[in-house]
Design brief:
Layout (H helix, E strand, L loop, with lengths): L3 H16 L3 H23 L3 H12 L1
Amino acid sequence: MRDKSHIEQVERWAENVKNNPNWKQQLKPFLDAQIIMARRFYNKLAQTPEGREKIKLLRNI
């Protein structure tokens, strides 16, 4: 079961979404950066034999 602080955070986020019609535009740069960093990580990992095997294992999950 989640604690009270988690529920409070969810309620704050819901309130923010209701009151801020531009919330998607504000969040987009952060999400784009996360995707870019993940792609860089996987590209670097794929350059090693062990990394390629790990990626294959992850894709099969």
